[in-house]
Design brief:
With about 270 residues, the protein is α/β, with parallel strands linked by helices. The protein is built from eight helices and 13 strands. It has one domain: Ribonuclease Z/Hydroxyacylglutathione hydrolase-like (Metallo-beta-lactamase, Chain A). Helix 6 packs antiparallel against helix 7.
Length: about 270
């Protein structure tokens, strides 16, 4: 777990997951030190003890007021119920669909939930946070957030990329990643995470990028990429080319059997 300060009032808790055949995928959660503190996503279940230890070193459970889920996939919800139990005054911010999907794992007390749809804003005491629908996503419950005070954009899975090493996955800036590797990784990730993008009307898809182009956030914090500073235009240009990337096709059963054979211990 790598802790960094990628933007004003923000701490990042960064993990990395190796994905055979793809590379090393960053998995990030964030703490927003607003007047009413917020944690954005809650890490991997496998890293839960370390995640919670680091989280509570950054914010006191008694002070936490908001738990924001960009969407209820397993790589975003690892510690969500632990946090709800430890922070009695915190409310879970999600969509109606997000609440329903999360409830499939465990009942979510509705009185602890705050439903926030794209285009709506949440006042956290010293700033407003506005939800938006990222241009690409893998869950219909997905939203991102824009901090209206600093301009920081939390983009959920959008702009993510598997990288060539775990160290790159915990970089403090995407400038550490070779440009060609970054572009290839982002195109690959989009085809894996949002395969529907290959089927969309190109004109309509490019138009969906324009709100973020106009916003031009100074910092983009993706769930699956190191921090991106002053590079929103380049990120969007790469995303604009994603529909023309060959769709990702994973290994089939024969390939799996070959991989398992390679993993067999050598005869004594």
């Amino acid at each position: 777990m790598h802790i960094s300060r990628p933007a004003p009032d923000v701490a990042a808790l960064s993990d990395v997951v190796p994905i055979p055949g793809l590379g090393f995928l960053p998995v990030n959660a964030y703490v927003l030190h607003a007047r009413e503190p917020m944690v954005i996503d809650t890490g991997l279940r496998a890293s839960r003890p370390e995640f919670l230890r680091e989280l509570w070193s950054l914010v006191d459970p008694a002070d936490l007021r908001w738990i924001y889920l960009t969407h209820p996939d397993r790589d975003h919800t690892g510690s969500v119920f632990d946090i709800l139990e430890a922070a009695p005054d915190a409310r879970l911010v999600t969509t109606y669909l997000g609440m329903g999907l999360l409830s499939l794992d465990r009942p979510v007390p509705p009185e602890r939930v705050f439903l926030l749809n794209p285009g709506q804003s949440l006042d956290v005491g010293d700033r407003r946070l506005t939800a938006f629908r990222p241009p690409v996503y893998d869950s219909a419950a997905t939203t991102g957030l824009v901090d209206e005070r600093t301009g920081t954009c939390f983009s959920s899975d959008c702009f993510g990329a598997p990288l060539t090493s775990a160290d790159l996955g915990q970089s403090d800036d995407i400038a550490a990643i070779p440009h060609d590797d970054l572009v290839a990784g982002q195109r690959l990730w989009t085809s894996v995470d949002s395969p529907w993008v290959a089927q969309v009307d190109r004109t309509a898809f490019h138009a969906s990028l324009e709100p973020l182009r106009r916003l031009d956030p100074p910092t983009v914090l993706s769930s699956h990429l190191p921090p991106a500073h002053r590079t929103a235009e380049a990120l969007l240009d790469t995303l604009a080319s994603a529909p023309d990337t060959a769709p990702y096709i994973g290994p089939d059963q024969l390939a799996l059997q070959a991989m398992l054979k390679e993993m067999e211990p050598a005869p004594a």
